[in-house]
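Technical annex B. To support the medicinal chemistry partners, we prepared a structural model of the target in complex with NDP, based solely on the information shown next.
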Amino acid sequence: MTVRLAVTGAGGRMGKMLIEAIAAAPGVELTAAIERAGSSLIGADAGELAGIGKNGVAVVSDLHEVVEDFDVLIDFTVPAATVENARICADAHKKIVIGTTGFNEDQKAYLLEAKDATAMCMSANYSSGVNLCFKLLESAAKILGDDYDVEVYEAHHRHKIDAPSGTALRMGEVLACALGRDLGKVAVYGREGQTGARERDTIGFATVRGGDVVGDHTVMFMADGERVEISHKASSRMSFARGAVRAAAWIKSKEVGLFDMQDVLSLR
Ligand SMILES: NC(=O)C1=CN([C@@H]2O[C@H](COP(=O)(O)OP(=O)(O)OC[C@H]3O[C@@H](n4cnc5c(N)ncnc54)[C@H](OP(=O)(O)O)[C@@H]3O)[C@@H](O)[C@H]2O)C=CC1
Ligand SMILES: O=C(O)C1=N[C@H](C(=O)O)C[C@H](O)C1
C-alpha cells in the first residue's frame, strides 16, 4: 500500500528537495505540505514550489489541519518547530522522520519521551555515505585507539544556523564511544589564544561556514609519522532527501520507538 507522506518546512532547502524525492520514489506519495504560519507560500502548489510541476497538494500553515491525511511526517525545519510537530504526531499516533539538527538538551529529552507514543526516526544525516562513514569511524577508532589524535572538521553553506553540524557531533559521539571516552568531557569546540599543548584524550571540532557548501565532513586520526582521514563530501541535498524518504517508508511499519538511519540501512 502506498505510504502517505507530509513535509513540514516545505519551502525550505530540504523541504523542496524532499517533495522532489517523494515524487521520484516508488510506493510513497506526498499528501500534505506545511509551511510556517504567515509564510507567503501558504496556498501554493507544493509541486510547483519544488520546481517539478503541479501535484495538487496545497501548502497549509497548520499541521493539525492535515494530520489525518498522512502516515509519516518528514520534518527538516528548526528545533522549536520540530518539537511541536513531534508532539502533534505523537498525540495523533503518526510516525515522524526528523532531520533537523541543533537541539538543546531539553528538546532532546522531550523527543526521547515522544518515542513511547509513536515511531520516530532521528538522524543528523540521512545520506548512505555518511552512515557508512559512521561505521568506518567506529572501526578506525577501535583499531587505531589512543595512540592517534582525533579531530573532526566540517564545512557548510553560509545559511546554516547551528554549529558544529549535527553530523560532526554524531561523528564525535561515535568516536568517543569507540574510544571509551565521554564526549561531554573531552570535546573541544574550536581553539584560540594560548591553548597549551593538545591534551591527549580530547576530540576537537573545527567549523567552516561559507558559500553554497552542501556539507563536508572529515575526521583525522593523527599520529607521529602518519595521518588517516575519513571524508564525506555531499554535492547535492538529494542524497539526504532520498535517505529520509527511504526512512519514512521503512518506519511506516513500526509502532513505537526511536530509530535512526543505521537501523533503516541495517548497519547496526
Ligand atoms: N539530517 C539530515 O540529513 C539533514 C539535516 N538538515 C537539517 O535540516 C534543517 C533544515 O535545513 P534547511 O532545509 O537547509 O533549512 P531552511 O532554512 O532552508 O528550511 C527550514 C524550513 O523550516 C521553516 N521554519 C523555520 N522556522 C520555523 C518555525 N518556527 N515553524 C515552522 N517552520 C519553520 C522555514 O520557513 P521560513 O523559510 O519561512 O523561515 C523553512 O521552510 C536544519 O536543521 C539542517 O541542519 C539539512 C540537511 C540534511
Ligand atoms: O544544514 C545543513 O545543510 C546540513 N545539516 C546537517 C548537519 O547539521 O549535520 C546535515 C548536512 O551536513 C547538511
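Notes passed to the chemistry partners:
The mean pLDDT is 98.
DSSP finds ten helices and twelve strands in the chain.
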